[in-house]
Design brief:
Layout lengths: L1 E14 L4 E6 L4 E5 L14 E8 L5 E10 L8 E2 L6 E2 L2 E5 L8 E5 L6 E5 L2 H33 L1
Antiparallel strand pairs: 1-2, 1-4, 2-3, 4-5, 6-7, 8-9, 9-10
The structure holds zinc ion.
C-alpha cells in the first residue's frame, strides 16, 4: 500500500446522487473516489481539473482521496468573499419578483449561510436605464438644434 501526493487529473464522471465518481489521472487510468474524499463543501463536476492523492491498495487497485478542485470546466460564477461566514464561495443566484412581476430581480446568496452577497440588475432597473438613455439622446438633440440656431444667428 502506498500513496502518491499532488496528482493532477480530470473528473471523468461524478454523480451527486450516488456519491461517487472517477478521475482520469495523467497515465489515463480511471481512479474511483467517494464524496467523502472531496475536500471542502463544493462538489466537482464532469471535466473539472483536480488535485488529489492517489492511494494504491492491495492488488494494485487505485483510488483518489484528498480531492481539491483546481479549475472548473464550466465556471458559472466567480468566487467571492462572503461577509456572512468569511468564506470564499460560489454565490447561488436566487430569483424573486413582486406580486405584479414588474420588479423581478436576481440576488446572489451564499450557499453556506444564505447571506445576500450582491444584487444583479432587476427588470425595473433595466427599464429605467432605457428611459434614461432615450432622455439623454433627446436632450443632446435639443442642444444640437440650439447650437445650430445660434450659429446661423452669428454667421448672418
Ligand atoms: Zn456565507
Amino acid at each position: 500500500m502506498s500513496t502518491k501526493h499532488n496528482q493532477k487529473g480530470q473528473v471523468k464522471w461524478f454523480s451527486q446522487e450516488r456519491g461517487y465518481g472517477y478521475i482520469t489521472n495523467n497515465e489515463k487510468k480511471d481512479l474511483y473516489f467517494g464524496v467523502k474524499d472531496i475536500e471542502g463543501a463544493e462538489l466537482p463536476e464532469n471535466g473539472d481539473i483536480v488535485f488529489f492523492t492517489e492511494y494504491i491498495g492491495k492488488e494494485n487497485t487505485s483510488a483518489a482521496t484528498d480531492i481539491k478542485i483546481f479549475e472548473r470546466k464550466n465556471p458559472k460564477l466567480k468566487r467571492v468573499h462572503c461577509k456572512g461566514c468569511e468564506r470564499k464561495v460560489e454565490p447561488k443566484p436566487w430569483y424573486y419578483g413582486g406580486s405584479d412581476y414588474t420588479t423581478v430581480s436576481i440576488v446572489l446568496l451564499c450557499p453556506f449561510c444564505g447571506y445576500r452577497i450582491s444584487k444583479k440588475g432587476g427588470g425595473f432597473n433595466t427599464f429605467a436605464k432605457i428611459i434614461l438613455g432615450v432622455f439623454v439622446l433627446a436632450l443632446s438633440f435639443v442642444f444640437y438644434k440650439i447650437i445650430w440656431f445660434f450659429r446661423n444667428f452669428i454667421v448672418k
